[in-house]
Design goal:
The protein is an alpha/beta fold and about 220 residues long. The protein has a single domain, classed as Alpha/Beta hydrolase fold, catalytic domain (Rossmann fold), CATH 3.40.50.1820. Helix content is about 35%, strand content about 25%. It has 6 helices and 8 strands. An 8-stranded mixed sheet has the order 1-2-4-3-5-6-7-8, sandwiched between helices. Helix 4 links the parallel strand 6 and strand 7. It is globular. The relative contact order is 0.15. This is TEX30 protein. InterPro entries: AB_hydrolase_fold, KANL3/Tex30_Abhydrolase, NSL3/Tex30. It comes from Thalassarche chlororhynchos.
């Protein structure tokens, strides 16, 4: 279901992937610095979640300013929270690369503003912990404030997320967290000798099983 979500004097393009049975729980998903909501990984994950009973709303927000992306993500969260069509008791925020940074930032901001439990988790696909080859400056400040469960799915050869560095940040986090490493995958989740579909199957299954363990999904 295609929708346009009001954002300032503009609209954000978004698509609902709706499960057959009514879902009480949803995932909001967005893309990285390049691309849009039709990035193949996002389309694949949204379809997988919907086929397993989880509503998925993915949206496009162009712009390389993290504050702007965060503001857009927050608008989408509010939109879904107030939706009469899909009355959800909670959502999980998910993003790829820069989109996962925006998701983390939203969760940190909203947790300081209100105490409701609408946001119940965070999924970071290829979290960009640092710029390529610039490992001295970590983008970890939002992660350290988050309290809800967090899943990281990262490539062990991701040039923007050095394995030991992410493990170090995770050990300092107060939130329940899990890291799933995709062996030999780079930042774009490409693995020599494996098809994109094969890698996506692994990611999708990981995300869903983590949701099932950490979120009150109705079985």
């Amino acid at each position: 279901v295609k929708v346009k979500i009001p954002f300032g004097n503009k609209y954000l393009d978004a698509i609902f992937s709706v499960p057959e049975k009514k879902s009480t729980y949803g995932v909001i998903l967005t893309h990285g610095a390049g691309g849009d909501m039709n990035f193949p990984h996002l389309v694949s994950l949204a379809a997988y979640l919907a086929s397993h009973g989880v509503l998925c709303l993915r949206f496009t927000c162009k712009g390389l300013n993290i504050a702007y992306r965060t503001k857009a993500f927050k608008t989408v969260v509010e939109y879904l929270k107030l939706s009469d069509d899909y009355k959800l008791s909670g959502v999980c925020l998910a993003g790829r690369s820069m989109g996962s940074r925006a998701a983390a930032s939203v969760i940190r901001h909203l947790s300081q503003e209100d105490d409701d439990d609408f946001i119940q988790g965070l999924v970071c696909l290829s979290y960009p912990l640092h710029r390529p080859k610039l490992q001295s400056k970590l983008r970890d400040e939002d992660l350290l404030f988050i309290r809800c469960p967090v899943l990281f799915v990262s490539g062990s050869a991701d040039e923007m997320c050095e394995k030991q560095l992410l493990e170090g940040v995770a050990s300092k986090m107060k939130a329940p967290k899990k890291i799933h490493w995709i062996d030999k995958a780079n930042h774009g989740m490409a693995v020599k000798g494996r098809t994109t579909d094969d890698v996506m199957e692994e990611i999708n299954a990981q995300v869903f099983s983590w949701l099932r363990e950490n979120i009150e999904l109705e079985h």
